[in-house]
Amino acid sequence: MEKDVLLSIKGLQFEGDMDSEKIETITFGEYYKRDDSHYIIYDEVAEGGTDPVKTIIKLKGRELNLTKRGAVNTHMVFEEHKKNMSSYKTPFGDILVGIDTRHIGLKEQDERIVIKVDYALEMNYQFISDCTITMDIRAKSAGSGFSLSAGSDS
Questions:
Q1: Which domain CATH number covers 63?
Q2: 3-state secondary structure string, the chain?
Q3: Residue 147, domain member (yes or no)
Q4: Does any domain span residue 152?
Q5: Is the pTM of this model over 0.90?
Q6: Per-residue model confidence as pLDDT tens for the chain (154 residues)
Q7: What is the total count of domains within the chain?
């Protein structure tokens, strides 16, 4: 996979039996592979903010680390079959986040990587929802195969 990539991140939160909330972000980023670890680096703007937040995703085996630096600061660890706690620092205050990771999946091709994470989310020791994040990373030169409009379900 080349360094310049197009990244689609789809999040799905299940709140109860029927309700779900979908979120999708599509952005450009950089990809690296060192030893057995995959790295994806990209900038995003926190909700309600204007300053970019640098996001670094590191995937090694059945562990995914997500680090954000900027208006929002956190280091969250998604480790299959484990619960991890972290502090999510925002301009409005800190939130204690619990992540109970059920499954981390990886599909790797020459010009594409798909990562899927299923987990339960807690905030300040309160269960919030069951969640799924799907990251589709594609070589920029290969064409995206997905639309650059936010909110797309493709």
A1: 2.40.128.20
A2: CCCEEEEEEEEEEEECCCEEEEEEEEEEEEEEEECCEEEEEEEEECCCCCCEEEEEEEEECCEEEEEEECCCEEEEEEECCEEEEEEEEECCEEEEEEEEEEEEEEEECCCEEEEEEEEEEEECCEEEEEEEEEEEEEEHHHCCCCCCCCCCCC
A3: no
A4: no
A5: no
A6: 789 999 999 998 776 555 667 888 899 999 999 999 999 999 997 666 678 899 999 999 999 999 999 989 999 999 999 999 999 998 889 999 999 999 999 999 989 999 999 999 999 999 999 999 999 999 988 765 655 444 333 3
A7: 1
